[in-house]
From TrEMBL:
This is Aspartate aminotransferase family protein. Belongs to the group II decarboxylase family. Keywords: Aminotransferase, Decarboxylase, Lyase, Pyridoxal phosphate, Transferase. One of its GO terms (biological process) is carboxylic acid metabolic process. It comes from Rhizocola hellebori. Its cofactor is pyridoxal 5'-phosphate. PANTHER family: GROUP II PYRIDOXAL-5-PHOSPHATE DECARBOXYLASE, MIP05841P. Signal peptide: none annotated. The modification N6-(pyridoxal phosphate)lysine is found at residue 288. Pfam families: Pyridoxal_deC. One of its GO terms (molecular function) is transaminase activity. It comes from the Bacteria.
């Protein structure tokens, strides 16, 4: 066995998959017991030839690979994966770089720095902000809120990194009632707990209610979590108004923009995230709307020193000082995969015009879904401002039955959600592979399942 033999075979498997995935049935329920059996058994005592291991892996995984990277997967907000980004990811693994710092992985760190600069330009984040390439939105929210915790407590004369939270002044934390659940987990991990969180009401499309926020804000500094891109509706909070309110009182604004922050990259949609540059920290994903493979998230912070003080584990004084600036000082990981290559490649493949076009196309296709389903007499339950569409098929039980039928049908895949007390089909358009014809085929399948449902 040579590397050539193994890698060529790997490439053949990958090529065959990518050629097939566009026609593949999407998300038919997997047989979990069969998969467990295929992967299970006792661990062999002797080793196995790598080519054989690969063939065994491909065989075992059959029936358990979901076509999320194909053009008709509209569940969650997952995105697909661009060609260059996928290839770059494969190389990053082959190179096996540890992107801890510039000494250990100089190319990986340089790629992150270049891609980080481009990301800030595209997303409307000040170019002085720091960026950590993290695992995803969850990690980016955790890093952003750790920076918030550092800064707000420092203003109150408390060094949380040294003294912990026991005996610390209480920091008010506010977030929209429609925040993403990863905000709650970040608050738990950071020792704030969730019970102390002040929930602020949202408006009819799921953006934070600015009047309610004004009433809820305490006089002193608070941490306020805003959102660009409600996971159900796509709604974006009024960032400018909220940032002004919070900053007047010396507080910190963290924006969870896992997918919605990408609106900033489009001249047509930028208005939705007007004021984005005013925030103090931002979370965004590469593996959703930028169509970079997993795992790829970005944690930005307006104050690099605060960012590093909150999460670095080398001395803060090393940070920002020349080549030793550790990429890992802005993330929660120590040893880490060279994540920047794939993002760098995706941005090069698309260019800034291509990023804008991708975001605009997905939003246009979401409106196409909404228009066609509405024309067929169905109810679209949200204002389709971005890439998310919520559909009702009657009462909750009937909606569940249609969603179940579409998931079994295999033409496309959509999930269910509960929003404002109702069960709804949730359609997310975030893949670069999706075309008008994919939407039309999917609408036809939905209507077929709807008329088949009682
Ligand atoms: C997906 C999502 C997250 C979590 O991101 P992961 O990449 O899954 O960790 C957080 N917030 C919002 C609004 C999201 O859509």
């Amino acid at each position: 066995m040579t590397w050539g033999e193994l890698f060529r075979r790997t490439a053949e498997h990958a090529i065959a998959y990518r050629a097939w995935v566009g026609q593949a049935p999407v998300g038919r329920p997997a047989d979990a017991a069969a998969l467990r059996a295929a992967f299970g058994g006792t661990l062999n005592k002797r080793g196995t030839d790598p080519v054989k291991v690969l063939d065994e892996l491909v065989h075992a995984a059959q029936g358990g690979i979901v076509a999320t990277t194909g053009p008709r997967f509209f569940g969650f907000v997952v995105g697909g994966s661009l060609r260059s980004a996928t290839a770059a990811e494969i190389l990053a693994v082959a190179w096996d770089q540890n992107a801890f710092n510039g000494l250990l992985a100089p190319a990986a760190v340089a790629a992150e720095q270049a891609a980080g600069t481009w990301l800030k330009e595209l997303l409307g984040i000040p170019d002085t902000a720091s960026v950590g390439f993290v695992t995803g939105g969850q990690a980016a929210n955790t890093v952003g809120l750790a920076a918030a915790r550092h800064q707000v407590l420092a203003q109150l004369g408390w060094d949380v990194e040294t003294d912990g939270l026991g005996g610390a002044p209480r920091v008010p934390v506010l977030a929209s009632a429609e925040r993403h659940a990863t905000i709650d987990r970040a608050l738990r991990l950071l020792g704030f707990g969730t019970a102390g969180l002040t929930q602020v009401a949202a408006d009819s499309n799921g953006a934070i209610d600015i009047d309610a926020l004004t009433r809820a804000l305490p006089d002193g500094p608070a941490i306020v979590c805003l959102q660009a891109g409600n996971v159900n509706t796509g709604a974006c909070d009024n960032l400018r108004a909220a940032c002004d309110l919070v900053h007047e009182r010396g507080g910190w604004v963290h924006v969870d923009g896992a997918f919605g922050l990408w609106a900033a990259a489009s001249p047509q949609l930028r208005e939705l995230v007007d004021g984005i540059e005013l925030a103090d920290s931002w979370a965004c994903d590469g593996h959703k709307w930028l169509n970079v493979p997993y795992d790829s998230g970005f944690a930005f912070c307006s104050r690099p020193q605060v960012h590093a003080a909150a999460v670095s584990y080398t001395a803060a004084y090393l940070v920002g000082t020349g080549e030793m600036a550790a990429a890992a000082d802005y993330t929660l990981e120590s040893s880490r995969r060279a994540r920047g290559f794939a993002t760098w490649a995706a941005l090069r493949e698309l260019g800034s015009d291509g990023v804008a076009e991708l975001i605009e196309r997905c939003c246009r296709l979401a409106r196409r879904f909404a228009d066609k389903l509405r024309d067929a007499g169905l109810e679209v339950a949200n204002d389709v401002v971005l890439n998310q569409v919520l559909v009702s098929f009657g009462d909750d039980e009937r909606t569940e039955r249609v969603i179940d039928a579409i998931q079994r049908d295999g033409t496309c895949w959509m999930g269910a959600t509960t929003w404002h007390g109702r069960r709804l089909m949730r359609i997310s358009v975030s893949s670069a592979a999706t075309t008008d014809s994919d939407v039309d085929k999917s609408v036809a399948a939905i209507l077929r399942c709807n008329s088949g449902a009682r």
